[in-house]
């Protein structure tokens, strides 16, 4: 009986995922996003595959939050970047994904440190990039992958992108991302794949959270090249990634100066 239950749970886990996230992708097909082009979808899948190959989930857990700033606020409708905080999901097992929140405060509402569970705070929107096995994808996404010859992430996974909203009932409501949101996530994925390997692990780790590595405060800006279909008159955009969110270059320099002074007086 125990062996039967183990096999049953294994099949359930493979199909529906597990871990601290909000579950598997909703099956949203990017081909249905109004105004999207085949070239844009191909560029997004290439960026997603690049991030996957950089293997951030080996070190990063849901408790590690990153601030991201892409260009200027004036570059975005409403004069504000739609999603500004990033979280990596699945490093401890389950569905591999990245989640983007509108602010750090929303991310903290949904995250309980290194807890396996994720809270569902009402009316919080989460942009999700969930890597899904090709065998489990909906037919519409399988057709899209085949017809556009989209780049695979790893050996047999592809990104499913949607925006999830937590309802007061505890259920999730899904919608397709907008063109602007997809443009944002492209730049964020390209930047993250470049900068997350630069994180330096601190010797003193998080007390009571042995699975969660503590990193030194970090901020880095990289130039991401826009594909021709996303550029809007500009070839490159500056993307700043910080950990924890809100870290500034001034603060980073002050921390370095304190370390130097401490070393001189020791």
TrEMBL record:
Name this polypeptide is given: Uncharacterized protein
Domain of life: Eukaryota
